[in-house]
Amino acid sequence: MAPQYAPSLRSRLPPIAFLLETVFILFFVFYVDVSYVHSIRFYAEFQDVHVMVFMGFGFFSTFLVRYGFSSSGFSLLVAAMAVQWAIVVQTLLHLPYLGRMRLTIESLVFAEMSAASSLIAMGVVLGKTNPVHLLLMSLMEVAGFTLNHWLLQTLLKVKLQHSLMLLHIYGAFFGIMTSWTLGKGIEPRHEKEKSDRKMALFSLFGTLFLWMLWPSFNSLFFSTIAQINIICSTYLSMAVSAVTAIAISVLSNPRGKINMLHVQSGILAGGVAVGATMSTFPLPWVAMAVGLSAGIMSTLGSIYIKPLMQIVFKCHDTCSILSVYGIPGILGWFVRLFLQLANSDSTTV
Q1: Residue 249's domain is classified under what CATH number?
Q2: How many CA atoms lie within 13 A of 95 on its CB side?
Q3: What is the pLDDT of residues 115-129, one digit of tens each?
Q4: In the record, what terms sit under GO molecular function (predicted)?
Q5: Residue 192 burial by Cβ neighbours in a 10 Å radius (0-12, 13-18, 19+)
Q6: Element (H, E) at 32
Q7: How many degrees, rounded to 5, is the angle at CA 240 between CA 234 and CA 244?
Q8: N or C, which end of the chain is more exposed by having fewer CB within 10 Å?
Q9: Percent of the chain, pLDDT > 90?
Q10: Distances (CA, A) of 45 to 110, 224, 274
Q11: CA angle, 57 as apex, 55 and 61 as ends, to 5°?
Q12: For residue 3, what pLDDT band results from cuts at 50, 70 and 90?
């Protein structure tokens, strides 16, 4: 049987989608050009981010039995619209200074990273919103993230890599606040939140794509020499967090079995946490220690913090986004601050 919102969705989604696309096309006609200085330096990174956004994040949230296939389609809708909207917002912010925007591979990479931030936020409210809600939410989230990125670079002179790595924290807490505002807290064990082997396998498929390509994600916009260090550190951190997540999952299960939903939360935490420390070029053992801490915090958060948020704050986090991205992201920035203080010869950071 079709969902109850189907009639209203049919009258709302197509007009909104066609209206937005028409506005975007007209905007590109007057304000966006193609760069005639072609560079393929970022094309490999663009491919990796492209796969992460549309396959990794797209399948990451398909574990729900009654919402699995829908979530992959909604992720495609949100990501495709968010990429276009991110380019529009970038152009609006730079229009007074640069005039017409020159579209490059770098700008597409930034747009897809903005889309990744909106997909992170979407994971919190998945299953409680229809595609129209998700579309409007992504427009607000991408606009806020792009504006925040521009303010950090323009006013505070923050480096590009640092401001971009805030996307995990920004997306996670944007989604958490949206869920809290909606006020649709559900029971800690709702029947529609169940998973089965088939849908969990699709979700694990997306998680493994994210896990394999995350080193490229963290090394974007760094020099070639720095990228080698960053890729190695990210890989080591994620390897440790994967082993840690499996160990914590077995310890928390009365029968000593592995819960793959808990593992999927913990194995990405190392990459999220170490991404904030990349500018300090941590030693391998530091990256591994960060992965260990992030894996423990993320897995335990998925087991205990998610139900606690529902009971105390009436805030439901469908994909445990706070544990996967929010908490490890904050941990990474604290580690970065500590490393900068330890390596600094002055009182400034």
Answers
A1: 1.10.3430.10
A2: 12
A3: 999 999 998 988 888
A4: ammonium channel activity
A5: exposed
A6: strand 32-34
A7: 140
A8: N
A9: 33
A10: 11, 12, 18
A11: 110
A12: very low
Residue 240: name the closest of 277, 289, 282 by CA: 289
Report the 10 Å Cβ neighbour count for 37. 6
Indicate the residue type of 243. V
* pLDDT tens figures, 176-223: 999 888 875 455 555 666 677 777 788 888 888 899 999 988 888 777
Query: Domain containing 111: what range?
Result: 40-341
Q: What gap in Å lies between CA 322 and CA 306, rounded to an integer?
A: 8
Let me know: does 134 contact 122? Beta carbons within 8 Å. Answer: yes
End-to-end C-alpha distance for the chain, whole angstroms:
59
Whether 109 is covered by a domain: the verdict is: yes
Q: By CB neighbour count within 10 A (0-12 exposed, 13-18 middle, 19+ buried), where does 73 fall?
A: exposed
DSSP character string of 49-72: HHHIIIIIHHHHT---TTTHHHHH
Domains in the chain: how many in total?
Answer: 1
- pTM > 0.70: yes
Q: DSSP letters of 258-296?
A: --HHHHHHHTTHHHHHHHTTGGG---HHHHHHHHHHHHH
Residue labelled with tokens 């796969």: 51
Distance between CA atoms of residues 177 and 135, nearest Å = 17
Segment 73-92, tens digit of pLDDT: 889 999 999 999 999 998 88
Residue 45 has which token pair? 């990174």
Domain assignment of residue 260, yes or no: yes
Does some domain include residue 68?
yes
| Inside any domain, residue 33 | no
Read off the pLDDT of each residue in 273-291 and give the average, rounded to a whole number: 84
